[in-house]
Design a protein that fits this description.
Blueprint: E1 6-11, H1 21-29, E2 33-38, H2 58-73, E3 77-80, H3 93-107, E4 111-114, H4 124-140, E5 156-161, E6 177-180, E7 183-186, E8 197-200, H5 205-214, H6 224-227, H7 230-236, E9 239-247
Parallel strand pairs: 1-2, 1-4, 2-3, 4-5
Antiparallel strand pairs: 5-9, 6-7, 8-9
Length: 269
């Protein structure tokens, strides 16, 4: 029997997982073992449903919303770091690595996928999770790092990408801003030539769209995806794009269409 592909997704808030939701559902359907680690409970977010949450209950509500989405996508296990929403960058890097590196060594993922260095939009939590996930990726592979478990060199560390060309496919997307504490944050495009991996998610994009329905507390009626017709969402998200930000491979890869490209999965009885 061929070894199962093991995937570790690391994201800042409930609903961030949907940025790679089609790919996660694709690999879940293919039999991969998938762990999602969410850094915060999303307790500081704006509430967009008067009847579903209060500031006091929002953390619990968003916990349940993410569990709902994980069931739809087919994620095997959901874990939490319980870092403060809006305060990820306040977690010292060494403290974060001490939490994450041992878990990487335990899970032994072939793939880590997370936010890019610019956050896709410059949310400090997205950027903070990227920095801490990358540091843990390196620490888990370093024999000099004194953490529990044997050293594990995760072969591939992907970050989610939005190609520059995609901005022209979505009406108003280039001008759209995410409101964060009074700041208007733009989405950040990645040059098309920097895209390393593009995954066909046409079969599973419906699960991504369905998963968004779980996150009812975050359904901003003015948000891009609230006003975008469902069929356009499915067309837009039928391919998901990534950059191979770091790796432990013998050589860099040419552009590819599968996370497992370049890997040699072992066999076991």
């Amino acid at each position: 029997m061929i070894e199962r592909l093991r995937i570790l997704a690391l994201f800042a808030h409930p609903d961030d997982e949907l940025s790679v939701g089609g790919a996660l559902a694709h690999y879940a359907a293919a039999g991969a073992d998938i762990t999602l680690i969410c850094a915060t409970r999303g307790e500081a977010a704006t509430i967009y449903c008067a009847d579903c949450a209060t500031p006091e209950t929002l953390a619990a509500v968003r916990t349940a919303e993410l569990a709902c989405c994980c069931r739809i996508l087919g994620i095997d296990r959901l874990e939490w770091l319980d870092w403060p929403d809006g305060g990820v960058q306040q977690i010292p890097l060494d403290v974060a690595v001490a939490q994450l590196a041992p878990r990487i060594r335990q899970l032994r993922p072939h793939i880590i996928v997370t936010h890019p260095e610019h956050g896709n939009y410059p949310h400090p939590d997205h950027i903070g999770v990227h920095e801490r996930a990358l540091a843990a990726f390196h620490a888990a592979a370093d024999a000099a790092y004194a953490a529990a478990g044997p050293v594990w060199q995760t072969p591939k560390f992907y970050v989610r990408a939005i190609p520059e060309s995609a901005f022209d496919l979505i009406p108003g997307f280039r001008e759209y801003r995410v409101n964060l504490g009074g700041q208007a944050l733009p989405f950040v495009p990645d040059p098309d030539e920097q895209i390393d991996c593009s995954i066909d998610c046409a079969v599973t994009v419906a699960k991504r769209v369905e998963g968004w329905k779980c996150h009812r507390s975050q359904h901003n009626p003015q948000g891009t995806f609230s006003v975008m017709p469902e069929e356009l969402q499915k067309k837009l998200f039928s391919v998901e794009h990534f950059r191979l930000f770091a790796h432990h491979l013998p050589a860099p890869l040419a552009r590819h269409t599968a996370w497992e490209a370049g890997l040699s999965l072992g066999r076991h009885d």
